[in-house]
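Let us work through a complete example step by step.
Step 1: write down the sequence.
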Amino acid sequence: MPGLSSQYQDDIGKRHSGPGPGATSTGQLSPVSLSSLDQHYGSRDSSSASPIKPQRPGFRGGTPGLGSRTSSTTSLLKLNHLLPKKEDHGTDTYGVREVRDGFFDAVFLKAPRLPSKDGLEALKATLPAAFDQHNPLTIKHFLPNQWRKLKSVVHRVFTTQTGITLLKPFVAYFIAYVLCLVPVVRHWLGPQYYIMAVSVILNHPARTVGAQVDGVVLTVLGTAIGIAWGALALLLSTSTLAARAGYGGILALFLVVFVASIASIRAFFVRFYQAVLTAGIAVIYATLSETHNATIPWSKLRGYAVAFLFGQAIALAVNVLICPDAGARPLATTLHQSFDLMLQALEAPHARDARLRRQLSKSFVDLSEAYRDMAIDSTISRFRPEDVLELRNLMQAVLRALLSMDTETTLLGRPDDGEANNGEEKQQGGDNGQNGHVKDVAEALATPTRDLLLSMCEGIRTCDIALMGISGYRKSTGPSTDFSSDTAVSKTRLGQTISHFDSVESLLLQSGRLPDSAIHDFEIVQLFVSARHVRETAATVQHLLHHVSEMQTVPERPRLWLPSYPFSKSVYRTNAQIRHDRGGVVAGSYQITFGDIARILDKITSRVHEPTGRTQTDAAGDTNLKPETSAPRTGSDGTRSKSSTATRYKIWRGLYRLQGYESKYALKACLVTCLLAVPSYLEQSKWWWDQYQAWWAVAMSWVVMHPRVGGNLQDLLNRSCLAVLGAVWAGAGYAAGDGNPYVMAVFAGVYMLPMLYRYALSTHPRSGLVGSLSFTVVSLGLLEAEHREAATTTPAVLAARQGLVFFVGTAAPILVNWVLWPFVARHELRSALSSMLFFMSVTYRSTVATYVYFDAPPTPTDIRRSELLEGRLREGFVRIRQLLVLTRHELRLRGGGGGTDHHDPRCWAALTEACERFFEHTIAVRQAALFYDAGCLRASPAAAERLLPHRRDAVATVLANLYVLAGALRARRRVPRYLPSAAAARKALLVRSDEVEAELTAQEAAEAEAEAGAGEGAGLREVNTRRKWSDTYRFSYNQSLTGCIVQLEEMEKYTKLIVGEQGFDDQFSI
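Step 2: predict the structure and record it as tokens.
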């Protein structure tokens, strides 16, 4: 059961349990009236109910007039807590039945009171872990934070694998840099010798062997294409006298066309990032360097290509020779971390840990990325890609089950002596009624449930050990060699524990020790549901153990596995190091994740509603109303209407796609590169353009500009400072030894070691790239300046002016991004939450239509599609919280005028938390509906007809509220003060469902008595057992649907805090 339910149950155990030791029960069932609980909890305006730790009533027994279904009664109590007291919600119709076709009846009640300042303080628990640290923009904590980070980096470099990862790019770069210092090498490579060191930086060897080979192919291909396009532009611009007259215009046209093309590819297809990056640098060099020559210097193109190839050869050799990573280590690390989180989640009992659940969701996402990284590049491993795919699915099934398991139940803890004595005193005091049944069930289920937990922990640890042994990284990654990797023993022990649990569970249900009324008791049903969730988790661990034991039979020798990820998907994905090097990981991942969710939900299309027709014979009445024609139905077979395949639809879709960020990025890239390249086409500026290699300003603007993230003020300061620092350090190194290569090599080693760490391993890769390129080009360019005619320019002045070139090239794209379509994390967060609320509405509608009110039961394909959507939505919540962390790095120059605090991160985090809990309740509804048999209602057309208006009201009210909240967030408009009450609609449905089911149950009882007289007792016992399980899952089903209503109320509050509340007279206020 979700954690919210357990919090309510724990609270009611303190308020409405027995009076204490020695108290005497008044009967087998001790019902508590709804009115008394309403008086106890007061109105919904009470400030005692915290939005994070809601106090919910627990209940044992039934309520007269509502039947003995405690699941419905408990849900009603939760709804009464949300509804105002002493107010009629239209539940009593006095026998008048309303027949509606299409529209729903909305009930508007008193608006809830928004949380006070004390309530906002309680919302801190919903913030991500990054908010525990000091604000990065505060000057007071800047230096202490930098000191702590420096000590952490030094510790990681000298004690973990990070040191080896840093050593590889440094060795490759230092080799290339030293070769550039040798005069013979410089003379042989030509004036473009420093491109060899630049080539190493662009495709550094701090990556797996497969990714390195892939990078070599892509960078060489991109450089060849860029040089070829530049050569073509040079040929055409000098082919005729007329062309020479428009020399600059032709080159500019070729540059615009090429930059626009590769910028679009860079934004659309992430896979080709390295190719388009090097292609852009190559074409900029070909068309913008050495522009003062009247003839085409073909030697510069040849020298550039040769130097670039030598740089790639050095990087590849270092990657293969120094501690090569064949691709299995990242996968093994991710698997080991996921198993550790599973073991941590199985520690029982423990309260609902929100951050642990977020880590489990993040692990769910990391497993998908680990498999994708393995399949997208070549790897050498004992893991077969198809085995890893199945392993990923099984591990995600375990994580899914752990997220659904209730760890707050008393079944998972061992009672101490004091609690045992208190239990004996209660039993001696005469509490032998329903409380005695609760105690009997708890004692019977506690031991096998705890045994299941222990067996699951052992099985998960064994899987971890076995997989680390297969990968070959058990000594460096873990676990300890003291544990055995024999999966057969763990699998046998877990199977025996499951069998013992099943036998105890069946004995409780079939032995007759529990009366029929006991299965409707709140505490008893809660115990069964909690134990059943543990049993389902054990089943997923059992399947995982079986697959890992099969993986242990693979050959011991590693094999080369070529890329196996589908090409149609791989063009939008790339490996982990490229995701890191290009920067903007959060923004890029968020865009891809939400695009995947939208594509999956696009297949779930609502069927066209056809109003019910009437015949002439019943024109005076509505007796021919067919529920099946008005029931909400959802088609998820992926079929589309004819209009979606029409030519005009494709044209519209293409034009609409051109309005996306990809086209905007291409426009900005063309604008920046062309404006910075203007001096190269003017005669009066060509001399200083070539002397100071100003074409690097254009190249740096192309390198730094990101398709999604433009950069904030902090990025501008960091990158600009490092661009200037690289030039200053290069000038200092040259001046210290007057160009002595040994001194320059020492300066390079001191500077480039932290800079390569920042580029290849830190969270700020683009600033590290800027600093590395600035130092390399300026320092090696000073050596070439010795042989130029411009000897009057001192090295200090030359270094300063080249540093200015890098500063302009770094700052220009950031400033342009601030003006044209800037990336603002707060705005993206608002859009993401709005989209997620809309996704929740579609998910809720699909779940209800597929698993609750369906014509045909869900198929295995429907279940697999739902699990796929669940994984994507979990990843969506991970991306939303990452966006929330990004907002800490943005300055807020003005406050919002909407809610209490327009940019208060607590409100955004609380809204995300409420939305995620709504999603978890929806998952619980789906899982419980697979086992809950409501055949008595589905088999009766009359019952379905009577419940149809109320079902429609309950579902439509939830959807309407979600649509309103999503629209308010996206349009930045205030939320109406009064929204349709989902709680009232849900209560009306529960009351009517209990009335209808009570009538049908009475009919079944009469038929059962007749069949019992005919001698069918054994069959009735089997049916009764199956009905008991149906009632057990009905509890979880109803509790989860009611939990959705509770979280919907919370989402309404937090959305109003963010965008404000719209009243009736706001338009007249001044």
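Step 3: interpret the result. Residues 142-324+662-819 form one domain.
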